[in-house]
Design a protein that fits this description.
The chain has about 350 residues and is of the alpha/beta class. Helix content is about 40%, strand content about 15%. It has two domains: about 1-155 and about 320-335, Rossmann fold, CATH 3.40.50; about 160-315, Glycogen Phosphorylase B (Rossmann fold). Strand 8, helix 6 (about 185-195) and strand 9 (about 200) form a beta-alpha-beta unit. The chain is globular, with a radius of gyration of 21 Å.
């Protein structure tokens, strides 16, 4: 079975620092290869994933600079990728909006993982592509959609890339984009109310520079509140492995949140608000605590009682790479063994 994985063109696979979708694609590609699949990844020329890679754009481009131009870049890359994959692949697995739309002209089956939150306008577009096998990354996300071919497959990670640390745990960690919807400012509040130091790691995108300067920077003193910027896998292990807990005071309905299972893989519990997929990922009292306010999470923070080995065991049992890859392989085999009626959809159809 030859599987084509189409990524957006902007970030390498795997990502050097930021890139949740690209991290997922990297893990999936390597997991499929380990199961004997022939895999090709369409990304950019800076990707280092240990499978065949093809690209139209040699260089990564992040952060993106302008919505119109960069949307055209994404379409140009994806049109080329899908056209190339049609010639040599048994199945195409896309991970962006242009890939879904390209499926209408593909004579081979297309699987699409939806990585973004529910957007009604996109859902209406997806309804035109009814032969795609859609994958949502949480049940919360799936309940927001009404697509005819849809199932949930939770993300999984390569547990061998994450480790338990033997050093004493003495601070909280925040890892992710430094942005209002991620709740970075609330993580600072939780740290101050609990009296426990906080290390903030993540990207400050240009659009959120004012937020960083106004809400975050004034609290950073290099001691109680530290900002360490973006981190690679090694530094991520060090950050999470020495943390008492990961603070995840999310302010939007995030479809999954890979950083939560990365923390748990390091034996680190998660303190989170119950938005989006959080109740599916965090088992309250087992791998962390879910609270509804800064005060509630600060209260949990002062009384943490978690065994790192048990937290990691929970992650291994629920979010391993092997589980995720197995579920995608089941989907691929189901699609390829079913009726092959993937003729191009040319005629427009009325969509409610």
């Amino acid at each position: 079975m030859r599987i084509a994985l189409v990524a957006p063109p902007f970030i390498p696979v795997p990502p050097r620092v930021y890139g949740g979708t690209e991290l997922f694609i990297g893990h999936l590609a390597e997991g499929l290869k380990a199961r004997g699949m022939d895999v090709v990844v369409y990304s950019n020329g800076e990707s280092t994933i240990d499978v065949e890679t093809r690209w139209l754009y040699a260089k990564a481009q992040w952060p993106i600079q302008g919505e119109i131009f960069d949307n055209l870049t994404d379409y140009n890359h994806t049109l080329w990728s899908v056209r190339d994959a049609i010639e040599s692949s048994d199945l195409i697995h896309v991970n962006n909006v242009p890939g879904v739309l390209c499926s209408r002209f593909s004579p081979v089956p297309v699987v699409a993982t939806i990585h973004h939150p529910h957007v009604p306008e996109l859902s209406r577009l997806y309804a035109y592509c009814s032969k795609v096998e859609y994958v949502t990354i949480s049940d919360f996300q799936r309940r927001c959609e009404t697509l005819p071919r849809m199932r949930t497959i939770h993300h999984g990670i390569d547990m061998t890339s994450y480790r338990l640390s033997g050093v004493p745990r003495g601070y909280f960690a925040f890892l992710g984009r430094v942005a209002p919807m991620k709740g970075t400012h609330l993580a600072i509040e939780i740290a101050k109310k609990s009296g426990i130091p906080l290390k903030i790691a993540g990207e400050v995108q240009p659009v959120f520079k004012d937020y960083f300067d106004r809400e975050i920077a004034p609290h950073v003193d290099g001691k109680f509140i530290e900002f360490i910027g973006e981190v690679d896998l090694k530094a991520k292990n060090e950050l999470l492995g020495s943390a008492l807990a990961l603070l995840f005071p999310i302010q939007w309905n995030e479809p999954f949140g890979l950083v939560m299972i990365e923390a748990m893989a390091c034996g680190t519990p998660v303190l989170a608000f119950p938005s989006g997929s959080v109740p599916e990922v965090v088992r309250d009292g087992i791998s962390g605590h879910i609270g509804h306010s800064v005060e509630e999470l600060a209260g949990y923070a002062r009384e943490l009682r978690f065994n790192p080995e048990q937290v990691r065991a929970y992650a291994e049992q629920n979010f391993s790479l092997e589980i995720m890859v197995g579920r995608y392989l089941d989907l691929y085999e189901e699609v390829l063994s079913g009726p092959q009626d993937f003729e191009s959809e040319i005629e427009p159809r009325a969509v409610a």
